[in-house]
Amino acid sequence: MKVKFWGARGSIPSPGPNYTKFGGNTTCIEVLTSEGRIIIDAGTGARPLGDEILSEGDSSSRNINFLITHTHWDHIQGFPFFQPIFESASDPKKARKISIYGRASTGSDLRQAFANQMNNTYFPVLMRNIAANLKFHDIEPGNSFNIGKVQIKTALLNHPGGVLGYRIEDNGKVIAIATDYEHPEDGQKDENLEYIGRDSDILIYDAQYTCNEYNGSPETGESSKKGFGHSTPSKGVEAAKELNTKMLVLTHHSPSHDDKMLAAMETNIKKRFNSCFAKEGLVIEI
Ligand SMILES: [Zn+2]
Ligand SMILES: [Zn+2]
Fold first, then answer.
1. What are the tens digits of pLDDT across the range 68-110?
2. Long-range contacts of 120-125 (CB under 8 A, 24+ apart)
3. Which sign, positive or negative, has the C-alpha torsion 60, 64, 69, 70?
4. CA–CA separation, 1 vs 174, rounded Å?
């Protein structure tokens, strides 16, 4: 499999000259499998990915699969700007088939969650005007399904409203995705994270906060971010060691962490584990 990051930012896009190295787009991860392209989340990184797919012309597959972790804005906001959904085919049989698997943050009806952000209050084009053939699949956490020979396992992870963690297995290789994930209290095990992440080749893990931001600091007056649904690079290393993962990729960077800060954090964490920070354009092949 080959993983490419199109968006590694959490919460809200962060454009600007101090954000060019890691990128400002929100979560979108492309995974090339033996069954074609699977896209994790449709944050604003989905816009440039959509343009790339269109530039491939006839050589690109007409079938696209999205796995949506949850429907907070930063994970679906790029969808109305993902141009392949508007590409009309002269032959209806050639219309793009876009399958969207996931779970709405309210627990059900993924289609409605996507339609809501395209309501005319927020967006000029309604979902019914999309040319592609959209198919939504509400996933019950814990259920498994297949995309061709690729097996997908899911688990409900700790995040406000819940989030799906994914385990993608293809030809004996495993990629685990745990973004928008908050680790349990010290000393507690997380069986759901274990289920998707055990013996993974790559664990993609939420690292939005520094330890100081997460815990809060009485000296600086910074309030704690506990309960906000995100984790830290340090907790990522602990999880990766515990799960016997081969490589840890930290993502969902805080919009207030600029390139300089993220580069320093990455240097520190690389000393502790085979790891890196996700950045736009990063490609990892396993
Ligand atoms: Zn998020
Ligand atoms: Zn979220």
1. 999 999 999 999 999 999 987 777 777 899 999 999 998 779 9
2. 123/80, 125/80
3. positive
4. 9
> Nearest ligand to the C-alpha of residue 182?
2
Would you list the domain boundaries of the chain?
2-285
For 161: left if phi > 0, alpha if psi spans -120 to 50, otherwise beta; the answer is: left
Query: Distance from the CA of 34 to the center of ligand 1, in angstroms?
Result: 28
Q: Which fold has domain 2-285?
A: Metallo-beta-lactamase; Chain A (3.60.15)
CA 237 distance to own-chain centroid: 19
Amino acid type, 192: N
Among all bound ligands, the one having the nearest atom to the CA of 11 is: 1
Give the distance (Å) from ligand 2 centre to CA of residue 180: 5
Compute, in angstroms, the gap from residue 172 CA to the centroid of ligand 1: 29
CA 96 vs CA 30, 32, 204: distances in Å:
18, 18, 29
Round to the nearest angstrom and report the end-to-end CA distance of the chain.
Answer: 6
| Closest-approaching ligand to the CA atom of 105 | 2
Q: How far is the CA of 159 from the centre of ligand 2 (A)?
A: 7
Overall pTM > 0.90: yes
Tens digits of residue pLDDT in 228-248: 999 999 999 999 999 999 999
Other Cβ atoms within 10 Å of 20 Cβ, number: 13
Alpha-carbon span 262 to 111, nearest angstrom: 35
Distances (CA, A) of 1 to 17, 35, 138, 174: 32, 10, 25, 9
Partners of 39 in the β-ladder: 30, 66
Q: How far is the CA of 7 from the centre of ligand 2 (A)?
A: 14
- Which ligand is the nearest neighbour of the Cα of 70? 2
Bridge partners of 155, per DSSP, are 165
The pocket of ion ligand 1, defined by CB under 5 A, consists of 10, 74, 180
